[in-house]
Amino acid sequence: MEFLKFFWQIGLAGKLILLGLVFMSLFSWYYIFLNIFIFKSFRDSLSFWQRRLEAFKELAPFIKEVKSGSEDGLALAFKGYLSRFAEVYNFYFKGEKGGPSLSAEAEKELKAIAYMEQERVILELGRGLGFLATTASTAPFIGLFGTVWGIMKAFHEIGLKGSASLATVAPGIAEALINTAMGLFVAIPAAIAYNYFTLKKEKLAKELELLYKRVLILSKRELSKG
């Protein structure tokens, strides 16, 4: 209630600065909670497929597992990979150009397909990271602008009333301090979240790369039968 009372007492510029910071904070927390959910879901899915792939010695059981499994992001990516694998296998080993001598070209193409599917999955991680980075870097300066504006307002009141009493300068100084605090309040969580999710995304990307290497091993075993 005190904050709302203060909000209605400050000038238009102060209101716009505070409202801008409030909206930046709301969107930041939205992206923070959204990414917590996305990263947890991806981590669970990644752990599941890591366990399953360790148990597979050939590609056929993996194909069966993917077809009967859930429709999460990784399962869909694996389906996309397996669909492309079938195209590669048919092109190199069942057509006129077929033959084991072309297995190197087939493996090279499968690596490219696996890389594309990895990138497609990783792109879905870390939504709003750009906004969090922008908020972390700009919110303190927006708060600083509000600080300068509040101090200017305090000096303006001194000039109008000809005195520097507490009653004269208090509103402007209060506005300045509130904007400073609000800028930091918005920026600090955004900076922490951005750094955390960026590092988490890099770590999960490495784990996903290792997972696809296991898939490629199974694929090469299947190609060797061709």
UniProtKB/TrEMBL annotation:
<dbReference type="GO" id="GO:0005886">
    <property type="term" value="C:plasma membrane"/>
</dbReference>
<feature type="transmembrane region" description="Helical">
    <location>
        <begin position="129"/>
        <end position="152"/>
    </location>
</feature>
<keyword id="KW-0812">Transmembrane</keyword>
<keyword id="KW-0813">Transport</keyword>
<keyword id="KW-1003">Cell membrane</keyword>
<protein>
    <submittedName>
        <fullName>Tol-Pal system subunit TolQ</fullName>
    </submittedName>
</protein>
<feature type="transmembrane region" description="Helical">
    <location>
        <begin position="6"/>
        <end position="33"/>
    </location>
</feature>
<feature type="domain" description="MotA/TolQ/ExbB proton channel">
    <location>
        <begin position="106"/>
        <end position="209"/>
    </location>
</feature>
<feature type="transmembrane region" description="Helical">
    <location>
        <begin position="172"/>
        <end position="197"/>
    </location>
</feature>
<keyword id="KW-0472">Membrane</keyword>
<dbReference type="GO" id="GO:0017038">
    <property type="term" value="P:protein import"/>
</dbReference>
<comment type="similarity">
    <text>Belongs to the exbB/tolQ family.</text>
</comment>
<dbReference type="InterPro" id="IPR002898">
    <property type="entry name" value="MotA_ExbB_proton_chnl"/>
</dbReference>
<keyword id="KW-1133">Transmembrane helix</keyword>
<dbReference type="Pfam" id="PF01618">
    <property type="entry name" value="MotA_ExbB"/>
</dbReference>
<keyword id="KW-0653">Protein transport</keyword>
<dbReference type="InterPro" id="IPR050790">
    <property type="entry name" value="ExbB/TolQ_transport"/>
</dbReference>
